[in-house]
Every structure is written in structure tokens, then in C-alpha cells.
Amino acid sequence: MTSSAAADAAKEGFSIRQRRRSGQALEGAMHCVFLVCGLSAVASVAFICIHVAVSGWPIIAKYGLDFLLGQSWNPGNSQFGVLPMITASVAATAAAMVVALPSGVLAAVFLAKIAPDRVSAVLRTFVDLLSGIPSVVYGLLGAILIVPKIFKIQSAAGLPAGGSLLAAAIMLAIMILPTIISVSETALRAVPKQYEDASLALGATKLQCVFKTTIPAAKSGITAGMALGIGRAAGEAMAVMMVAGNAAIMPSLLKPARLLTASIPIEWAYSSGVHREALYGIGLVLFVFIMALNITVRRIMKKGAGQGE
Amino acid sequence: MSSEAIFSVKVKRKRPLETLGFGLIAAVALGVAALVVYFVIYILARGIPALNIRFLTTAENPILETIGIFPSIVNTLYIIFFSLLISVPIGVGGAVYLSEYATDRRVADAIEFAAEVLSGIPSILYGVFGYVFFCLALGMGVSLLSGSLTLSVMALPVIMRTTQEALRTVPKAYREGALGLGAGKWRIIRTILLPCSLKGVLTGMILATGRMVGESAALLLVAGGSAMYMPRGTVFNQMAASGSTLSVELYRYAYSRGDNSTAFGIAAVLIIISGALNLTVRFMAGRLGKA
């Protein structure tokens, strides 16, 4: 709609109406285009739900609880029990969280409340770098730097040297640190200054203020960070696979362990038939877990936002 | 007198617990930084010796026993290009819808929740989904095309989020001014909002690129294959064939073949790319903040 075109149009009221009508049609069309773009995210989620569920269901229908609670995974003998892997995943994630949560929150306190702006900007760059390291690179680092260090403990305990649940847990702890740090930092920064001022004015020391006022006030954000960290840890496949040893046995800290996610890339290439269906089934189990976690995070976030108002 | 008294109280009360507590907090934060520095230096120190022109510009040659990663560099670029080609328009469009059109709270909530879910789904699940949907149901087979499509779904929430944030920073007065002059919504979006949020879109593209460069689990399933041969034929032939990206290749060298020096070479390339992308985003965020 250039100005000359507008002038031409102005000569005849008739064509203005026409133009307005075509303009409205364009507006309506663009509205639809943008709506479709937005809904494509919803459609993607729906497609993922449907395809993961449809492909994962047959094995569960065939094996029922033997799939979820069976203790032996032996595709050669058509035994598909994923309990050892679920246990290993839960154990590794929990162990990683025990280390990463306190250290992540403390680091976030330093970034948000203690360090001068310039220092925290530099540290934040490091945290971003940590989250930018690809998971295969973590796996490589873990296999070279962490696994051999555990050999000594294993030999002291009389166990064969190799990948272990402990190595996987350490790997995961490092990998989820950036998530926990950045989400917690945002939450800590959002705590109203008045809360801290009031706490200090009542005679709290700075340390008491941090632990008794700031961190409790940021609780919902920190919990969300924890849940996101759990999601990342539970879904990580490549890095843990490269350090965990991957024997599908009931987990023990110093023995090799097969995490749920790792089974898929390990056995994918040579699986077919029921075996492949079992891998799809693992995908479904993982998907249900992640969705439950997502919904929990959303609840927590909404509650947190409600409290802030 | 009284002020002196307060002063002396302050001096007397040294709080060892305070010092210890803050010392611990600082130590943890600096420990994280030290860990990053150690990792990066370790990777570069072991990886850079493996890098040379032949490593970067040729394919692996089993007869001459030389190693080269050029095919996987090309595969990585193809996948990034085609994924962004799909995810950028859709992601930007979705963000525009959320910030400019959405009047029904429920639709907006559904889209936002979907984006959150997409960003929380682990890459191995994207692999399973991409295999079942793109490779099998749509008959694209294990190929770079399937890989690009899968990664474009992964990139969607990243691009939507950064674009939405950028649109939020466009002053309301711009929109009102344009509306007052008689511009329609689409005209405002095309001439004002999109140009103003260009940096946000670019940031999203860079963040998404970073994620795709590091992606391995999903691509192992949907794009799979090896990168033994130099690229030949048209782009379309390449896209229809299977091939591995740098990260997948790193996994193959480290895990399947136990060739750690090559693996560290690729790791160094990945770290350099990741660091460069990170710095670019930071630089742009700085410029954006000033503007």
C-alpha cells in the first residue's frame, strides 16, 4: 500500500471498500497462519504422545507387569524385564541430585546475592559453557577422567574394574549443575528485597538471612530447578552410557549399571521384532515419567507465581 | 559515645560461622568455575594436537590409514541448515501468535505448555519418535532429512521462547502509533515487530544451532550411519542418505572404536564451536541491552 496507490484508491470510494475487504482477507489469513504456527507446537506434542504410546504399547500388552517389574533383561531368551534399569536410573538420578542440588543452590546464592556483578557475569559465562558441552563430550571426559579413578575403589572392594553406577551419578551431577544453578539463581534474584531487609533489621546475620529468609522464599523456583534437573538426568543417554558399564543387573554403586535410557542406543542397531518393541516400551516408560515431571513443574511454577502476586 | 559503643560491639563480635559459611559458598561457586576451566583446557590440550588440515578437510581413508572428519562436518551443516529452515518460520510465527494475537487464554496456555513439554523431552525420546514417525510412518528412512525434521521439532521451543522475549521488549507505543496511523496487524508485524525482534530471533537460531551441534542420541537413531565418504551428488541425494554428524562421529570413535585421540580432536572442534556460539549470544545480548 504505497502512498500513490492509496491516492488512486481515494479517487473512488468503491475501490477503497474493495481494498479494505482484501486487506481484511489478508489480515484474517495471516491470523490463521500464525495460529497454525502456534498450534504446530501442540500438534508436535500430540504426535510425539501418539507415536511413542502406540509403538511402546505392544510390549507392555504382551508382557504386562513382567516388563515393568521383571528383573532380567535378556533379549536372546526373550526376557524383557526393565526393573534393573529403572532402579539404576532412579539410583543414579537420586545420587546425582544429592550432590548437585546443594552445590548448585550454594553456587546460585553466590551468583545472585554475594558476588559483585562483574564476577557473577564471568561465572555465569562458565555455567553457560558447562551447559553447552555436548553430552558425548561429557561421556568421553567421564570415560577418561572419572572411570579410571573409580578403578582403585573397585579393586579395594574386590570388584572387577570398569564402568559403574557411581561414575554415571558423578557424570549426571556435573551435567545437571548448570540447570540447577541458573533456575535457582533466577528464583533467588526474584526474592523481594524487603524480605531480606526485614530479616536483617530483626538482627539476623547475613548468613542467617540467606538460609532462613532468601532460600525459603525462593523455594518454589528452586524446586522447579530440581525437577528440571531430574528430567535432564533421567533423560540423559549418551554420557551415562559411555561411563556406566551397561550390564543389565540390579544396581550397586560400584558395579556396572544399565540405565533406562542407555538401553535404546546400545541395542538399537541390532534389535528387531519383539526386541525392538521392548526398546519402544522403554521409550514409553521414560515418556510417562518425563510428562509427569513436566506437569509437576508447571504446578509448582504456577503456585510460585501465585505466591509472588 | 553511643556510636562508639555500637562500633566496639561490632568489632568484638567476629562470627567465625559467618566467615566459614560465606567461604563455603564462594568455594562451591569457584569450584564449579574451576571444573569448567579444567574440562575445557583438558579437551583442548588433548584434542588440538589431532587437528590439522587433512583431519578437517578429508574423509577417513582406511587404505592410507588417515582420519578425516570432513563428511561429518558437511552432514552437521546440512542438518543445521534444514532444521532451521523449518523451525525458524514456525517458531517465530508461533511466538508472534502468542504475543500479538492470542486472546483466548486457553489456546495460549496450551501452546506455552506444549513448548515447555517439547523443551523437556530428552533427546533419546526425540530419536524414538523421529524414527517411528519420520523414518517409518512417513517413509523417509534413516536419513539426514529425518534427522533435520526431528531436530526442527527440538529447536521449535528455543526459537519460540527467544522470539517471544524479544517481542515483549518492543515498546507498546510502537504498536499503538502504527495502529493510530491505520496500519493493520499484519502490517505492524511485518514492518515493525519482526524487524525490532530480529536479534531475538537470531539469538534463538544460535542457541538452537548449539543444541543441534551437540545432539547425538536422537541423530544416532534417525540419521545414523557413518560418514566414511566425501559428499557427492546434489544436496537432495545427501539429505536422502544416512550420515553422522560430528557428535555422533565422536561417539563412534570413542565408544565403538576406542580411538580416543580422534575423539578428542572432534571434542575440541565441538568445544570451539560451542564456545564461539556462546560468545556470539553474549555479545548480541550486550548489544541488545544497550539498544
The rounded distance between the terminal residues' Cα atoms of chain A is: 45 Å
The appropriate CATH architecture of the largest domain in chain A is: Orthogonal Bundle
Main β-sheet of chain B: number of strands, strand sense, barrel status?
Answer: 2 strands, antiparallel
Q: What's the name of the CATH homologous superfamily of the largest domain in chain A? A: MetI-like
CATH class of chain B: Mainly Alpha
Count of strand segments of chain A? 2
Helix content of chain B: over 70%
The SSE string of chain A, one letter per element, is HHHEEHHHHHHHHHH
Strand content of chain B: under 5%
Mean pLDDT across the residues of chain B is: 87
Briefly summarize what is shown.
The complex is a heterodimer of chains A (309) and B (291). Chain A has 309 residues and is mainly α.
Key terms:
heterodimer, A: 309 residues, mainly alpha, MetI-like fold, 2 domains, two-stranded antiparallel sheet, 80% helix, B: 291 residues, two-stranded antiparallel ribbon, 14 helices, 2% strand, disordered N terminus
Description:
The complex is a heterodimer of chains A (309) and B (291). The relative contact order of chain A is 0.13. Chain A has 2 domains: 3-54; 65-308, MetI-like (MetI-like fold, Orthogonal Bundle). Chain A is mainly α and 309 residues long. Chain A has helices spanning 3-11, 13-63, 65-69, 83-114, 117-132, 135-156, 165-189, 193-201, 206-217, 219-235, 238-243, 260-268, 274-308, and strands at 73-74, 79-80. Helix content of chain A is 80%, strand content 1%. In chain A, helix 2 crosses helix 13, helix 5 runs antiparallel to helix 7 and helix 7 packs antiparallel against helix 10. The model of chain A has no long low-confidence stretch (mean pLDDT 87). With 291 residues, chain B is an all-alpha fold. Chain B is built from 14 helices and 2 strands; from the N terminus they run αααββααααααααααα. Chain B has helices at 2-12, 16-47, 53-57, 70-101, 105-120, 123-137, 144-169, 172-180, 185-196, 198-214, 217-222, 235-240, 246-256, 260-290; strands at 59-61, 66-69. In chain B, strands 1-2 form a two-stranded antiparallel sheet. In chain B, strand 1 (59-61) and strand 2 form a beta hairpin. In chain B, helix 5 packs across helix 7, helix 7 runs antiparallel to helix 10 (198-214) and helix 13 (246-256) runs antiparallel to helix 14. Chain B is globular, with a radius of gyration of 25 Å. Chain B starts with a helix and ends with a helix. At the A-B interface, helix 2, helix 4, helix 5, helix 6 and helix 7 of A face helix 2, helix 4, helix 5, helix 6 and helix 7 of B.
